[in-house]
């Protein structure tokens, strides 16, 4: 029998901090949670004024606080 992975309880709008990768140490907001990952929009803007978006595995971020 396959072992079930523990999935974090996270919702759209929750703030997270990136733990790995190009954006390590940056804060972001969850756009959408998925089974094995989340999509995020970073809080910092690029030089052109846009906010970068990316997808992170559940091991690559930490939840800062739950949004109400």
Summarize the structure.
With 68 residues, the chain is mainly β. It contains no helices and 5 strands. The chain has one domain (15-63).
Kindly list the characteristics that best describe this protein.
68 residues, DUF2187 domain-containing protein, globular, Ribosomal_uL24_CS, structural constituent of ribosome, Translation_prot_SH3-like_sf
Count every helix, treating DSSP H or I runs of 4 or more residues as helices: 0
In total, how many beta strands? 5
Mean pLDDT: 89
Strand content: 35-45%
Structural class: mainly beta
Spans of at least 5 consecutive residues whose pLDDT stays below 50 are none
Largest sheet: 5 strands, antiparallel
Radius of gyration: 13 Å
Total individual domains: 1
Neighbour order of strands in the largest sheet? 4-3-2-1-5
Instruction: Spell out the helices and strands N to C.
Output: EEEEE
Principal-axes geometry comes out as: globular
In whole angstroms, how far apart are the ends? 37 Å
Helix content: under 10%
InterPro entries: Ribosomal_uL24_CS, Translation_prot_SH3-like_sf
Organism: Paenalkalicoccus suaedae
Protein name: DUF2187 domain-containing protein
GO biological process, one term: translation
């Amino acid at each position: 029998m396959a072992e079930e992975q523990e999935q974090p309880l996270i919702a759209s709008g929750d703030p997270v901090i990136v733990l790995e990768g190009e954006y390590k140490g940056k804060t972001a907001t969850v756009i959408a949670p998925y089974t094995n990952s989340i999509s995020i929009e970073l809080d910092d803007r690029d030089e052109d004024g846009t906010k970068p978006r990316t997808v992170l595995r559940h091991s690559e971020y930490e939840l800062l606080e739950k949004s109400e």
